[in-house]
Amino acid sequence: MQPTIIFSLIVASAYLLNRFAERRISIGNYKILKKAGGEELGTNLLKKYYLICLLVFPCSLVEQSILAPRIFKEMLLLGLFLILTGHILRYWAISSLGTLWSMRCIALPGLRAVNAGPYRYLNNPEYISRIMDGVGICLLTGSKATGLVYMVISTALIRKMNVMEQRQLAELNSGFSHLHRQPV
Question: What pTM was estimated for this model as a whole?
Answer without folding.
Answer: 0.83
